[in-house]
């Protein structure tokens, strides 16, 4: 459920483009407030019409124009917003690789792309990634292994570092499996399989064997309906939600990633509410990249549900948190996307 508010009677694409052109040609700089007012209140279809009309009228890409005239986090958020969803997610995946694998949890954008959307969308993202970067998503996951992991092959490892090394290998394997999998989206559920695989997952979690092959295989190959049934059986049989069980038994990068996989499949609104909450409770500053990713990618999907989950977690309205933690026109843009007032 989208949260953004659209005008009752939107101007034509031509009218929007004429106003945007003037806003982007201001002598003292772009009129950021007008740009946000227009584009922050247009849905995906309307934005596509604006892009096509702007190209026809002015013989240039409005995305390129926005990129050249805006700056900072507003530029990044607006460029993501104006790209279509597959290209947007491809860009976010590529951006994750620029962090050079400092920590696995920085790559949760890949988990979101693979697990919090439809199989058809994932296929579209993979095609967009190849088109934009002349490389497959899977190839970039494998090639962007951390320097420490690469060196680990050539040096003597203690039992402790060997264990860390093995878990990172499994993390790579899991990510590749997730983004390359095509989950059949039929609604049929085999409850015998659900109970059996719930037991396998429980055994691995209890033994803290998060790198177990069964865990990777189950999470990466079963369709979403079957997995939701498995997670339901897990809670019924063991009296605890599977994400909570993982949270209580592990605190490493692999367990973090597995929990993200499960939440993205079972309750994406809860996952993104947690991403937003984590991005705004940092000791020193707000994680603008994570905040932008969560709001821009989910504004037209399930932001109303995310706002509800956020309130349950924090007893605070998301609108109030964004108003407090973010400033300027960037704040106004995010508020528009979550359906608030500015």
Describe this structure in words.
The chain has 342 residues and is mostly helical. It contains 21 helices and no strands. The chain has helices at 13-23, 32-39, 44-58, 62-69, 72-82, 85-97, 108-115, 119-133, 137-143, 147-152, 159-180, 191-206, 213-221, 224-238, 242-249, 253-266, 268-279, 288-298, 303-314, 318-325, 328-337. The longest helix has 22 residues, at 159-180.
Strands, count: 0
Q: Alpha-carbon distance between the termini?
A: 21 Å
List SSEs in N-to-C order.
Answer: HHHHHHHHHHHHHHHHHHHHH
Q: Approximately what portion of the residues adopt beta-strand conformation?
A: under 5%
Overall shape? elongated
Structural class determined from secondary elements: mainly alpha
What's the average pLDDT?
89
- pLDDT < 50 stretches: 146-157
The percentage helix is: 55-70%
Biggest β-sheet description: none
Please give the radius of gyration in angstroms: 22 Å
Number of helices: 21
């Amino acid at each position: 459920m989208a949260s953004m508010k659209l005008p009752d009677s939107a101007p034509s694409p031509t009218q929007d483009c004429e106003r945007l052109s003037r806003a982007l040609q201001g002598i003292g700089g772009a009129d950021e407030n007008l740009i946000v007012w227009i584009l922050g209140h247009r849905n995906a279809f309307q934005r596509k019409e604006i892009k096509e009309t702007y190209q026809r009228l002015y013989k240039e890409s409005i995305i390129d124009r926005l990129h050249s005239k805006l700056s900072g986090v507003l530029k990044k958020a607006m460029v993501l917003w104006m790209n279509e969803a597959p290209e947007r997610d491809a860009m976010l995946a590529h951006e994750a690789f620029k962090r050079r694998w400092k920590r696995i949890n920085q790559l949760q954008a890949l988990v979101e792309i693979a697990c919090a959307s439809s199989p058809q969308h994932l296929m579209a993202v993979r095609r967009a990634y190849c088109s934009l970067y002349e490389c497959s998503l899977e190839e970039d996951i494998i090639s962007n292994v951390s320097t420490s992991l690469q060196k680990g092959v050539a040096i003597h490892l203690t039992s402790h570092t060997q264990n860390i090394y093995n878990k990172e290998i499994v993390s790579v394997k899991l990510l590749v499996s997730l983004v390359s999998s095509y989950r059949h989206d039929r609604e049929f559920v085999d409850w015998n399989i659900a109970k059996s695989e719930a037991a396998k997952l429980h055994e691995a979690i209890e033994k803290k064997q998060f790198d177990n092959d069964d865990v990777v295989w189950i999470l990466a190959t079963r369709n979403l309906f079957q997995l939701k049934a498995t997670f339901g059986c897990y809670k019924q049989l063991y009296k605890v939600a599977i994400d909570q069980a993982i949270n209580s038994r592990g605190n490493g990068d692999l367990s973090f990633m597995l929990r993200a996989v499960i939440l993205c499949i079972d309750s994406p609104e809860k996952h993104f509410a947690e991403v937003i909450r984590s991005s705004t409770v940092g000791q020193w500053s707000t994680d603008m990249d994570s905040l932008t990713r969560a709001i821009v990618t989910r504004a037209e999907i399930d932001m109303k549900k995310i706002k509800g989950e956020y309130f349950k977690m924090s007893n605070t309205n998301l609108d109030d948190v964004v108003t407090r933690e973010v400033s300027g026109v960037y704040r106004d843009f995010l508020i528009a996307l979550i359906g608030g007032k500015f």
